[in-house]
Amino acid sequence: MKLDNLNSKQKEAVTKIGGPILVFAGAGSGKTRVLTHKIAYLIDNIGLPPENILAVTFTNKAAQEMKTRIVELVNHDISGISIGTFHSISAQLLRKNISKIGYNSDFTIYDQQDSKSVVKQVIKDFNLDVKQFDPKTYQIKISNAKNSMKNPDYFKDLSENYSDKMFYQIYLKYQEILKKNNSVDFDDLLTLPLTIFENHPECLKFYQDKYKYVLVDEYQDTNKPQFEFIYSISSLHKDIFVVGDDDQSIYGWRGADISNILNFKDAFGKATIIKLEQNYRSTKTILDAAWHVVSRNLNRADKKLWTDNSEGELIDIVESFDERFESKQVFGKILKYKNELDNVAVLYRTNSQSRIIEDELRKGGIAYQIIGGVKFYDRKEIKDVLAFIKLIVNHNDSVSLERIINFPPRGLGKTTIDKIRSIANDNSSSIFEEIKNIESLNLSIKQKKSLNDFYNLIKNSANRLTRDKGSVIVRNLIKEINLENFYHKQDTVDANERWKNIEELVLGIEEYESSKDDFSLVGFLEEVSLLTDIDRWNKDEKALTMMTIHSSKGLEFDYVFIVGLEEGLFPIIRDFDDNDLEEERRLFYVALTRSRKKVVLSYAKSRRSFGRNLTISKQSRFLNEIPDRLINNKINNKSTISSNDYKDKRVHVIDKGNVVEHKVFGRGVIINVDGVGDSAKLTIRFANNVLKKLISKYANLKKI
DNA sequence: GGCGTTTTCATTTGT
DNA sequence: TGAAAACGCC
């Protein structure tokens, strides 16, 4: 394999073999290139079989891309290699080994919402008030406990007050129910393999022997269980290679431990440390700005990025009266790049900021894709169908059962379900099992019949699992429950949309079957449970991309807009701790360094949170951390609102669906908009179904 | 008791 | 703005 397209540091990182290696890979320093070349080097030059390599990436997409690139570099079949996220690698390990600890290999993976409903049920079962014991809060507490590897026992005797005492009970019961449901939550995916390793040394030994070389990407964002996982596997042979950048550690709130990277040597012993400090991505201006920001942090390893790239353009700052005007201004600036939209990104701190920008882009006819927010697999209709599938695969999954036992409505309401649930609890059996014994239940004939039909529906589908393709079973199921008709008879735009999504889901199953050559629904479920929005993102689509800064990690764009730079929003408000502020600052650093050519920063002097109350905001302190000389138009640090700010409050007239008034034709509805701004061609339907095509700027329309 | 409708309430980030 | 709880009608 050729190494001549690597710089000397990169080459060192690739060819150094033996013992722990830590690579500090700054933003845009060719980290992915190093990782792929390293793996190719191990296979081609060292002769290590691919099945002896474990590489952990941050997203499934990154894993896929890495595989593709390695195939291009080596002349081997690498299908045996293990590349994936921590969660997907662990899920596969659990499929093989989870029976050792009393689960069965068809376990269901619960997402946060599922976990929350289990917690809620537990709280209710303890007869506690859900107002006082907020399920969401307790779900987060449990998650944090697992991320710091504390099992329920840890909390048994530390109960100071009533709420803490109950936390122990809730956590304990929660874990019991998960096991009874043959389900694991996201955190279990990371911790259960460790439990298996601990109780079954032969299993740990197997993986220690199998994975002779371990590589970890985005090492700065590993948390405690993830660290333990790779440590268990590699602490004997110590052939571990981790790549990370402490300046880009942005998942502290999820238990990521920045000390994993800062104290790498302490854990693994004598380690080789290599710093990649040449940046190939950004202009000097951008790097300079990013450096001035991040170097304010105290808790960081010493290093500084440099580049041979040009100075490039200065950074723009956009000031707006409110979030609506901000969106308009950002939209105006985006127009300049409308022929290279796939190179534009709009980044923000919170998903809720996307909507208003989306509105402007839609009105202006700019193609966009949004990452995050309501994920495809999080939509209600999709989750409903998935719940059917989960229940078919795993009858113990009571969360899924409760979701769909009365969907579409079949006359089984809250009271009936409560009855069956309490019997199931008493007999410590699953709800599904109890449905079989309905004869003994105190229920009406109608409900008994309904329950019986439901039972048979699931059971019959399950019986087909070994014979039929998953997609066939699901298609059949959808027909049996008459789902198309359920949505069709509602006859709303929304319902039609939902039905379309369900059709897309089935196509997704078929696509999975043909691409993975796997017809099991278990495999499909696992894939979608662990899929992120980034994984579905198509970077080649001719559209700009909007996403949170967290999602943008690892990506790059020519033109980057960072919006909502206000105190309280970015950095976001919480009970401020220096560590939190440093993490917010790293987040800003990540945002800046996504850009190759040009950065535009924007903030609004007032903002409506939800509903309507407008609150005055102050520009983010981060703006002042960038030296003036790098900024095109420094705006003074005041938060007063002048009357000028109201001048662009003209209502947007051209929008599909708006009712407008025309001097001659009277009132009409805009039914189509072709083009952007004043020159847009509008199709308007006036009284008596008269259709007119008008140019916006000549039409002189008034919005009603 | 079920089911559709209205009200309330909460909004960081994500596997 | 949406989802979940509360409400009120069949």
What does this structure look like?
The protein is α/β, with parallel strands linked by helices. The protein contains 29 helices and 21 strands. A 6-stranded parallel beta sheet has the order 3-2-6-7-1-8, with helices on both faces. The chain has a 6-stranded parallel beta sheet with strand order 9-14-13-10-12-11. Helix 14 runs antiparallel to helix 28 and helix 17 packs across helix 21. The chain is globular and about 80 Å long. 40% of the residues are buried. About 2% of the residues have low confidence.
Specify the overall morphology: globular
Instruction: Characterize the biggest β-sheet.
Output: 6 strands, parallel
What count of helical segments does DSSP give?
A: 29
pLDDT < 50 stretches: 637-653
Average predicted confidence as pLDDT: 87
Over all CA atoms, what is the radius of gyration? 28 Å
Strand content: 5-15%
Quickly give the structural class. Answer: alpha/beta
Number of DSSP strand runs: 21
Terminus-to-terminus distance: 68 Å
The spatial strand order of the largest sheet comes to: 3-2-6-7-1-8
- Report the helical percentage: 40-55%
Oligomer: single chain
